[in-house]
Write a structure and sequence with these properties.
- It is built from 14 helices and 2 strands.
- By secondary structure, the protein is mostly helical.
- The chain has a two-stranded antiparallel sheet with strand order 1-2.
- Helix 3 packs antiparallel against helix 4 and helix 7 runs antiparallel to helix 8.
- It starts with a helix and ends with a helix.
Length: 279
Amino acid sequence: MHRPDELRQLVEGFLSGLPFSEELGKLEEALRYSLLAGGKRIRPVLCLATGEALGREPAELLPAGCSLELVHTFSLVHDDLPALDDDDLRRGQPSSHVRFGEDVAILAGDALLAEAFRLALRYPTPDVARELAEATLGMIGGQYLDVTTDGGLDAEGLRRLHALKTGRLLRAGVTTATAVAGLTEEERAPWRAFGDELGVLFQIVDDILDATGTAAELGKTPGKDEAAGKVTYVSLHGLGRARELADDAQVRVERRLASLPGDTSVLAALVATIHDRHS
């Protein structure tokens, strides 16, 4: 089994050597600018760690895992645009639209999405691309709710929004691995449930960090959601209660994880890392 940091190194190496379509021409610079700017790589590492728990080698999972990172980066490039969150900072450097202009940033995001599906389609089964498509559509649906909701969300509405916007792509870190491993639908169900709970934990912690972190720590502008009047776990429940909810979510994730087959020790380390970011 590989440690999370070792899996991350494998992901970084794969992304650095990833060939893009020659038809993109000089647009490739904008793709690599956003893709290789850093980031935690949680989604691809989660995919590789799940694959190892299922007895698969990381090399087999790299295209699936990195397709998730391309979709995630596409979402960040578009999310930072003036029409959406209007953020000038991402991963510690100027956002794509600040560096290249809005027109190029839009095209770069489009190209990252297309390249993601080209990666997912490397597999003989269409299930990997299907999982990626469902996760991407869920994420976009969550983004739509985010930009069209007037701030009147209750706890259930907030959970629903983030189950789509953030949770679906995190869950896909698990479900794309189960697709590569060839699990049946019945076998995938408990893994999917684990991924769902992990998405909740991640978002609660992310909201806490947005309220307490600095731009240097986060690599993006903190407090943007609060300034925009968006409902977060912190604005809805308060910081202290949000921390309690994060602890409760970690317990639920660990229970799901304990019920899964195989060696899930690396996944357990990832869960702890995600939770402990706010401590």
